[in-house]
Design a protein that fits this description.
Length: 418
């Protein structure tokens, strides 16, 4: 019912990302006097101590660049146009540089194209290749499977989650279904079909459910609209049927999934290894030992999550610092409150995943008691004490007449208490 048939079409607005773009190359850059190319040729007479006055002074007295750009793709391939680069612009153009240009068909012919960004495909592709190589070299088969799972996750995101939301489906339902699919594929593909992986899956699902409930409650209570910048405003303008607060909640769920997988898999593996080290340990002992490991994990993961969100919002925080706003004022603004709710709800889910997953893993693995293994059909049981690799008492009663029956594995083969 939620499977989309493709994103609905619309008339391009020409705003932000919603515009036609083409690839282009800077073929020539000449230095010219800013006074000769700027529309207002007069020298500014205002206060040059302000940012606006200083910029106007530089544009009047400085040296500008006149760049010639050739369009490399689209119906106007080979067409050239010029663009003036002011000396105080953050992005300067160099000869031979690959750029992205915006196309506005309704504008006058000499103003239809303008440079909007730099073409970063080569460095991004090279970085992605280095990342993939490092993952495969270190992780080997597991690393390769992780890359396959990552590719599948992007496919689910691009061909299911995003189109379904654009078509008006409930963002929360779409996010839960999409996140669950990503989690199942990633965990089972990377870690195999096993009880250990299934425990991690169950722990992740329970934590995602908690995040969804808390996120829905506090996003509604804090009256967060999810419409806080130009991009979300453009989305709301193009597709008014999209629930922007639901979209915010969907982002919280999907954003928490990656860290949740790490926590649940690590906790499950820790409990399994504790059981391997001491098979006689009961589920209470396994839980207590596992939760001690989990406390260290909680401290590092929560700090990582908070710093990740703070790093993403650093320009915004810097802006508030420049404005000398109080902490209460900053936290109450919707831009920051949105990040606070996102961080805290995700962190609560991460914290809860540790005891939940540890308890599930301890219960499941403790059921595998020593001596409970069945003998495969058609295989003769190895006599107890017949070799150093056979656990005493593994197959039924001990043969008391066997010399090594009491010692088993190098003196450690006594029957354990059940």
């Amino acid at each position: 019912m939620l499977w989309p048939g493709g994103a609905p079409g619309h008339e391009r607005t020409g705003v932000g990302f919603d515009r036609q773009t083409q690839q282009a190359t800077v073929t020539k850059v000449d230095e010219v006097s800013c006074k000769s190319v700027n529309a207002s040729g007069g020298t500014p007479t205002g206060d040059t101590s302000t940012a606006e006055g200083s910029s106007a002074q530089q544009q009047a007295d400085g040296t500008c660049k006149k760049a010639t750009i050739r369009v490399d793709t689209g119906k106007d391939k080979g067409r050239t146009f010029t663009e003036i680069v002011q000396p105080d612009q953050s992005r300067q153009l160099d000869e031979g540089e690959k750029v992205v240009v915006a196309y506005e068909p309704s504008a006058p012919k000499d103003l239809q194209y303008s440079v909007t960004d730099v073409n970063r495909r080569l460095p991004m592709a090279l970085l992605a290749g280095i990342f993939a190589l490092a993952v495969v070299v270190v992780g080997r088969l597991r690393g390769l499977m992780a890359l396959v799972a990552l590719a599948i996750s992007f496919l689910i995101l691009n061909f299911f989650i995003l189109p379904a939301i654009l078509q008006g489906s409930n963002p929360l339902v779409v996010a839960v279904i999409g996140a669950s699919a990503i989690m199942l594929i990633a965990l089972y593909l990377c870690h195999g079909l096993s009880a250990r992986t299934s425990v991690a899956v169950l722990g992740t699902l329970i934590s995602l459910l908690l995040i969804g409930i808390l996120g829905s409650l506090f996003i509604g209570w804090a009256a967060l609209t999810g419409n806080t910048d130009d991009n979300t405003g453009l989305i709301h303008g193009l597709f008014p049927s999209i629930d922007m607060s639901g979209l915010l909640l969907a982002g919280v769920i999907i954003g928490s999934l990656g860290v949740l997988d790490d926590v649940t898999v690590t906790q499950t593996s820790a409990v399994w290894e504790l059981h391997e080290a001491n098979p006689s340990m009961g589920w209470r002992g396994l839980y207590r030992a596992g939760i001690r490991i989990g406390r260290d994990h909680i401290a590092s993961v929560v700090n990582t999550l908070v710093l990740a969100y703070a790093g993403a919002a650093l320009p915004l925080l810097l802006l508030f610092s420049i404005a000398q706003s109080s902490v209460g004022t900053v936290a109450n603004s919707e831009l920051v409150a949105e990040e606070i709710v996102r961080t805290l709800v995700g962190s609560i889910g991460l914290v809860a995943s540790v005891p939940v997953t540890t308890a599930l893993a301890a219960l499941v693995v403790s059921a595998d008691r020593p001596g409970s293994a069945a003998v495969p059909m058609g295989v003769e049981p190895t006599p107890v004490g017949a070799g150093a690799g056979v656990r005493a008492g593994a197959y039924g009663p001990q043969d008391t007449h066997t010399p090594q029956a009491a010692t088993g594995r190098g003196g450690r083969g006594r029957r354990r208490k059940r």
